[in-house]
Design goal:
Order of helices and strands: HHHHHEEHHHEEEHHEHEH
Number of helices: 12
Shape: elongated
Structural class: alpha+beta
Largest sheet: 5 strands, antiparallel
Number of domains: 4
Helix content: 55-70%
Strand order of the largest sheet: 2-1-5-4-3
Strand content: 5-15%
Distance between the termini: 122 Å
Number of strands: 7
Length: 399
């Protein structure tokens, strides 16, 4: 008994879960056939029962042969209606499964990446509505994918009329869909100031059904921005390999071109900085020797001597030239700033300490007025000390 139950469950799973089309081809024709057969069979049984129960054949033996012939043809009619019921059941199953099979095949083609798939379901019932909704869904997906592309897409029919423009192209051209859709491709020049060669290029692509590309065409959009665009065309064919239109793609290379120019400029500046650093080192080395010899020479002369004035001037000018070389080195190899919270009073004291020798030498009196409650500032302490030192040196030299 358990074995039979397991076998029944297996057949139930096979018919209703695993092989639904097969089960429909079995169950529906069987039910329709059973209905057609049972109705005729019940009528036949009732008719025979009526004849036997009322002894009609015994009362009228002359009609016995006619009654038998009538029963014979009735049985044939029952078999005929039963056969027609089976055919009707098969037709019902086919009418249900054929549109569903088309939907399944279309869904499989879309899953494989063929978004040109369309369903040809001409029924006017719910299955026909399902087919129309399926085609509408595929069209919406195609429009979504085209609009989602980063580049611009413009679709043209065989006569050069603009059929569709995606969002990427509208963003590049800075216009609205109504400015182009439904118009001839010459309308491009109304929103894009470009060489008339562009129209000839599109006409040639349409006429000869060939693929072309234009690299870095300089144009101006509707907002008077200078752009660098690339154009390329590709032919659109239907399933019978007939030419049905052309897809034109455009990409904005303006930003990429600007980045390339900046990189080239940076490379040139880096090369110039390297050359400047080399020159600075070559100049600084002999400057150090010249300054050292000049300082030795300066010690040989007495204060007030004219020659000592010359040596002082030479040392001062050497220091100035050394400052220029240092600035050149800082330009070619800029140091990284290290920002932190700084006490500006301490920075000023540090700068004063560095210039104290010059202050004492000239006997300058310095008055310090500092607020101890000043908040810490965010900055590069070393560069701030250098800035204060330059100001103090200039002030000392001016006294």
């Amino acid at each position: 008994m358990a074995f039979k139950s397991g076998t029944d469950n297996h057949w139930f799973y096979f018919l209703f879960k695993k092989r639904l089309p097969i089960s429909l081809y079995i169950i529906i024709p069987f039910v329709v056939t059973l209905i057609a057969f049972s109705s005729g069979f019940i009528a036949l049984v009732l008719f025979e029962y009526f004849l036997l129960d009322n002894n009609i054949l015994a009362l009228a033996p002359s009609i016995k042969s006619e009654v038998k012939e009538l029963l014979y043809w009735t049985k044939l009619e029952i078999l005929g209606f039963t056969f027609l019921g089976a055919l009707a059941g098969i037709g019902i199953v086919y009418a249900i499964l054929n549109p569903l099979r088309k939907v399944l095949m279309g869904a499989r083609q879309i899953a494989e990446g063929d978004f040109s798939s369309r369903l040809d379901i001409k029924e006017l019932d719910e299955l026909g509505i399902l087919g129309k909704d399926f085609n509408l869904m595929v069209s919406s997906l195609n429009e979504y994918f085209i609009d989602s592309m980063a580049g611009g897409w413009i679709l043209l029919d065989p006569h050069g009329k603009i059929v569709s423009v995606n969002r990427g192209a509208l963003n590049i051209l800075q216009c609205e869909s109504e400015d182009l859709t439904g118009k001839h491709h010459e309308a491009l020049l109304s929103v894009l100031r470009a060489d008339p060669l562009l129209n000839k290029w599109i006409e040639n692509s349409l006429k000869n059904q060939i693929e072309h590309s234009l690299n870095e065409l300089k144009v101006m959009d509707a907002k008077s921005r200078n752009l660098k665009l690339t154009f390329s065309t590709s032919c659109l064919m239907d399933k019978d390999d007939n030419f049905v239109g052309m897809a034109m793609t455009l990409k904005d290379l303006t930003r990429a071109s600007e980045i390339t120019e900046k990189m080239q400029r940076a490379d040139k500046l880096a090369a110039l900085g390297g050359m400047a650093a080399g020159l600075a080192h070559e100049i600084r080395n002999p400057l150090g020797s010249i300054k050292g010899l000049t300082q030795l020479l300066d010690e040989e002369f007495k204060e007030g001597a004219r020659a000592k004035t010359y040596t002082k001037t030479m040392i001062r000018e050497i220091d100035r030239l050394n400052g220029v070389v240092t600035s050149l080195l800082n330009f070619s190899q800029p140091a990284r700033s290290e920002f932190h919270f700084c006490d500006i009073n301490k920075l000023l004291e540090q700068a004063l300490g560095l210039v104290q020798l010059n202050i004492d030498k000239k006997k300058i009196q310095v008055t310090r007025v500092m607020d101890p409650n000043l908040p810490a500032i965010w900055g590069d302490g070393e560069k701030l000390v250098q800035a204060f030192l330059n100001l103090l040196l200039n002030a000392v030299q001016a006294v």
